[in-house]
Amino acid sequence: SPRLTWTSYDTLNTIVVLLRQFRKVALTLTVYSPRYVPYGVELNRARAAAVAEYLWSQGIDSRLLIVQGEHGKGGTARVEMVFREALM
User: Fold this and answer.
1) What is the pTM for the complete model shown?
2) For every residue of 24-82, which 3-state class applies, written as one string?
3) Residue 3: pLDDT band by 50, 70, 90 thresholds?
4) CB of 69 within 8 A of CB of 23?
5) Partners of 73 in beta bridges
6) Which of 19-23, 30-34, 70-74 has the lowest mean pLDDT?
7) What are phi and psi of 33, to 5 degrees?
8) How confident is the model at residue 31 (pLDDT cuts 50, 70, 90)?
9) Confidence at residue 80, expressed as pLDDT on a 0 to 100 scale
10) What distance in Å separates the CA atoms of residue 31 and residue 66, rounded to the nearest whole number?
11) Dist. CA 60–CA 75, nearest whole Å
């Protein structure tokens, strides 16, 4: 499901605080699923979009986010967040 769980809000709120505090930091968010999941890429894109929408709703500039959903190479579903210097 692309819906956020209650437990994810604590982590996302911490990320919001960090992105507000360090204004020159951007975030690349990639959601992966195992290769055998039907409609995996579409589901991952929807999950990534749900995270991005939450961050945007908290006032994070959309120019600071790169959001993507991909098939994983391994057998686990995961979310990877990479912080980088913002080029604005």
Assistant:
1) 0.80
2) CEEEEEEEEECCCCCCHHHHHHHHHHHHHHHHHHCCCCHHHEEEEEEECCCCCCEEEEE
3) confident
4) no
5) none
6) 70-74
7) -135, 160
8) confident
9) 86
10) 11
11) 32
Structure tokens of 81? 């967040």
Residue entry with tokens 């990534």: 48
Token digits of residue 79: 């979310």
57, two tokens: 């709703």
Rounded to 10 degrees, the C-alpha dihedral 49/54/60/65 comes to -20
Q: What values do phi and psi take at 34, rounded to 5?
A: -60, 150
Q: How far is CA 48 from the centre of its chain?
A: 5
**What is the overall mean pLDDT for the chain?**
84
Structure tokens at 58: 């908290």
**Quick one: pLDDT at residue 72?**
67
Please enumerate in sequence order all residues whose Cβ is within 8 A of that of 82, keeping only pairs 6 or more positions apart, or say none. 27, 28, 30
